[in-house]
Amino acid sequence: MTHLHPPRRCTSPRRRLACAALLLGLLAACGDDDAPPGPPPPDEADAAAQEDAPADVSPAPPDAADADASSTPDAAPDVAPDAPPEPPIDWEAPLAAQGPWGPAARVTRLRFPDDAAEGRQLGCQLFGANLGAGLGNLALLAGGLDVYLRPDGSGQIPLLLILQALGWEAEARPADVEALSLRFFDGLGGPDPGYTLARASFEEDDPTRPPRTAYPPAPLEEGWVETAPRRFLLRLPLFGALVLRLPVEAARVTAHLRADGPGVGGSALVAGYVSRDAVIDLILSVQEACLSPARPAICAAFGNAIQQPAEELIPLIEGFHYGYDARLVDGHPYPCDPRPEADPEEACNAVSACVLLDLAGIAVDGVASE
User: Are 191 and 106 in contact (CB under 8 A)?
Assistant: First the structure.
């Protein structure tokens, strides 16, 4: 798997000061008992290449386990028996017996590309010079996302994201499946208490209605499925204890799936666009939470700036993504003119966003009672 490095775009003096303030706030948040644990711009050729970027994307398949664990000299004494090699992944295994919400997977890792070069390597083919790397700095504010994807001391997973691959029946192998409908849910629970779906994942919080993030059936070929573009609601702890849903518009999902224990596993790539309106709504949500009596610990990082009028606060926080590099018109993405003096009809108004999800099979018990 590709290992990401911290985003490197806090480069201007203003951004360095703001980044430092936020990171100090994160360190302060680590001492709060109520808080959870805690690109370079491409060249002109890269930017021009995005105008003809194809719509399809493909996540890199999971890396094979390294079978050669021996890296010490022959003369070195053995201090422990060799670990057994990882069994090979069977991409043609039949699916296990399923309940009404199967087959399902939970997200075990969630990664943004570090820069445009890595976005290209992952397959984030999008309009926009940053190729989906624009939200990397926002993920940094959470102190890293992996800690939220693991069970805590009570067995609960703070950030539980669940995929359902509807249309894959029990005992069927991938070659037997013609099409899958991918549906995404916020979940509650973990391995010990069991997994349930949050009611907020459904339209009007009603489990009899469709999920808020659902894709129509798409062909499954050799384990690969690619959806049509739809709105994808991505739940992220972008500001520590403050968990927000970020709407990703015109988002395509490309997944490589296999039977995995009680459900499905593999990887999925989500590639789309976050509008400036959504960024502003996020900023206003942060301000509202920080001005409430139960303010998250991260708010200390903003100091008195959080009390500024929204029109003054918005440019400060907007500095933490890589800049608007695409244009959304009625939900459809286009190339844009990134210059400050650009014609309003051609100016950028969205951030290209790409995230790679690692998936592990689970069984879902049902929908949470409340």
Answer: no
Q: Which residues, in sequence order, are bridge partners of residue 328?
A: 333
Residue 31 DSSP code: T
What are the structure tokens assigned to 201, written together? 């994942």
Q: How far apart are CA 358 and CA 71, in angstroms?
A: 28
* Tokens representing residue 88 in the block: 């090979």
Task: Identify the CA nearest to 139 among candidates 297, 22, 14, 251.
Answer: 22
Kindly give, in sequence order, each residue whose CB lies less than 8 Å from that of residue 45, ignoring residues fewer than 6 positions away: none
Is the Cβ–Cβ distance between 132 and 350 less than 8 Å? Answer: no
227: closest CA among 236, 219, 238? 219
Percent over 90 (pLDDT), the chain: 49
pLDDT-derived band at 247, boundaries 50, 70, 90:
very high
Q: How confident is the model at residue 243 (pLDDT cuts 50, 70, 90)?
A: confident
Burial 63-102 (b: 16+ CB within 10 A, else e): eeeeeeeeeeeeeeeeeeeeeeeeeeeebeeebbebeebb
DSSP states of 38-50 as a string? ------HHHHHHG
Confidence of residue 290 (pLDDT cuts 50, 70, 90): confident
Distance CA 172, CA 169 (A): 6
Q: What is the mean pLDDT of residues 268-282?
A: 91
Show Cβ contacts of residue 49 under 8 Å, excluding neighbours closer than 6 positions.
none
Give the angle 183-119-314 at the CA atoms, nearest 5°.
80
Mean pLDDT, range 366-370, rounded to an integer: 90
